[in-house]
């Protein structure tokens, strides 16, 4: 931010246009995303409310707590929800998604791209491909994935994408976005049950079409957060999205190398499905790893995963060599182990 407090000066059309274009480039879409005046969870709930209807069958993939919550919101809207669930130390196999689509003939499919809580990442591109082959509307909760993993909205043809800035993008948590394809807008518009005149109404936030400049700034956009998001996304562009993603990949690989030297294992069972946002560490009865409060970026498991894993939150500004080194040293200290070798392994894998 500049030195001056500008929260009382309304967002200009040009700032709004800049923000929309930054978001479009981030997501590789030519369609202007909807800017959500709140935390990412609001956009996700709005998508669920907007697509759910008693006449619709929706396959909802559950690989962590956010997927469960999405399913509950779909059910509230009256849809028949087919839950495809796996244990939280796995991600969903594409074959399982394909089998559910064949069996239930849904009109839409929803999933979470990267699970910060479980440390797993679903095979997003393959899931979307199979869903598109069956002409389904696709919904991806990419709140944490964006900036940590590739996501090509138009090329992959994903219809709804929830985006947050507070994870890999190191941005504010008071504003977020939902990218919606033309097919997605039709799916909302053809739903008599989609909210109107409500904080959950995406239809009321529909931006002007592709290529046309916005005519006014939606009055509900939080000004300070919008300006903070412009700064965060500008920083991402100047580092380069590919480099930001690579930094997250390095963080995950080096964190895993470090914990393995300490004699620990990742919580995720399959080494091809680790998320780049968090590394989750299996506690496996190791009493010394039971913590109640986060220590730096080392945090206890959430909800039902409390006591089963530790999370290393190496995303955003903490997707750095120093961030991972400190986290691995913290875990070594919990185990009363010397951290030298583990930290050395972190550096080696990071490439220094
Ligand atoms: C962080 C996150 C959200 C948003 O949750 P907040 O409570 O807004 O932080 C939603 N989905 C996923 C997959 C997330 O990682």
Q: Outline of this structure?
A:
With 352 residues, the chain is of the alpha/beta class. The protein is built from eleven helices and twelve strands.
Low-pLDDT runs: none
Radius of gyration of CA atoms, rounded to a whole number: 21 Å
* Order of adjacent strands in the largest pleated sheet: 1-9-8-7-4-2-3
**Terminus-to-terminus distance:** 33 Å
CATH superfamily of the largest domain: Type I PLP-dependent aspartate aminotransferase-like (Major domain)
Major pleated sheet: 7 strands, mixed
CATH topology of the largest domain: Aspartate Aminotransferase, domain 2
Instruction: Please tally the helical runs, counting DSSP H or I stretches of 4 or more residues.
Output: 11
Strand content: 5-15%
Q: What's the order of the H and E elements?
A: HEHEHEHEEEHEHEEHHHEEEHH
Tell the overall outline. Answer: globular
**In CATH, what is the class of the largest domain?**
Alpha Beta
GO molecular function, one term: alanine-glyoxylate transaminase activity
Pfam family, one: Aminotran_5
Protein name: Septum site-determining protein
Cofactor: pyridoxal 5'-phosphate
Protein described:
The structure is a single chain. With 352 residues, this protein is an alpha/beta fold. It folds into 2 domains: 3-239, Aspartate Aminotransferase, domain 2, CATH 3.40.640; 241-350, Aspartate Aminotransferase, domain 1, CATH 3.90.1150. 38% of the residues lie in helices and 14% in strands. The protein is built from 11 helices and 12 strands. It has helices spanning 13-27, 40-51, 65-76, 94-104, 124-133, 153-156, 182-189, 223-239, 241-261, 321-334, 340-350; strands at 34-36, 57-62, 80-85, 108-112, 114-115, 120-121, 137-141, 160-164, 176-180, 279-282, 298-300, 309-312. Strands 1-9-8-7-4-2-3 form a 7-stranded mixed beta sheet, sandwiched between helices. A 3-stranded antiparallel beta sheet has the order 10-12-11. Strands 5-6 form a two-stranded antiparallel sheet. The longest helix has 21 residues, at 241-261. It is globular, with a radius of gyration of 21 Å. Pyridoxal-5'-phosphate (PLP) is lined by residues 39-41, 44, 66, 112, 116, 141, 143-144, 164, 167. It holds the Pfam family Aminotran_5. GO terms for molecular function: alanine-glyoxylate transaminase activity; L-serine-pyruvate transaminase activity. Residues 54-281 form the Aminotransferase class V domain. Belongs to the class-V pyridoxal-phosphate-dependent aminotransferase family. Its cofactor is pyridoxal 5'-phosphate.
